[in-house]
Amino acid sequence: MNINRLKEIREDHDFKQVYVAKILKVTQAQYSRYEQGLNVIPLEKLNILANLYNTSLDYLVYRTDERKPYPKPKIEFIDEYIKM
C-alpha cells in the first residue's frame, strides 16, 4: 500500500511522529514503520488517523484525492437500514 500520504498529512498538520504515535498508542518507531510501509497499519489505527486529520480513509489510502471527509449519515437513514 502506498502510505506516503500518512507522512504528508502529518507534516501538513505540523505534527511530530511521536505525537501521532501517542494518539495511536504505539511507539514512535512503530509509527515510523507505518509511514515507511514496512508494517501494515491496522484499520482501527487508520480510522483514528482519519478522525484526527478530519478526512476519509479513502484519502489516506489514495482511493481519492478529496481531503474533505464524507458527510455523516442521518440517524433516520441508519434506522431504516437496520430495519431491512
* Class by alpha and beta content: mainly alpha
Radius of gyration computed on alpha carbons: 15 Å
Terminal CA distance reads 35 Å
CATH class reads Mainly Alpha
The global form is globular
* CATH architecture type: Orthogonal Bundle
Output the helix-strand order. Answer: HHHHHH
Helix content: 55-70%
DSSP strand (E) fraction? under 5%
Summarize the main sheet.
Answer: none
CATH fold description = 434 Repressor (Amino-terminal Domain)
Number of strands: 0
Mean pLDDT: 84
Query: pLDDT below 50 for ≥5 consecutive residues: which ranges?
Result: none
Spell out the CATH superfamily: lambda repressor-like DNA-binding domains
Task: Give keywords.
6 helices; globular; 434 Repressor (Amino-terminal Domain); mainly alpha
Written account of the structure:
With 84 residues, the protein is an all-alpha fold. The protein has a single domain (4-83), classed as lambda repressor-like DNA-binding domains (434 Repressor (Amino-terminal Domain), Orthogonal Bundle), CATH 1.10.260. The protein is built from six helices and no strands. Helix 2 (17-24) packs across helix 3. The model has no long low-confidence stretch (mean pLDDT 84).
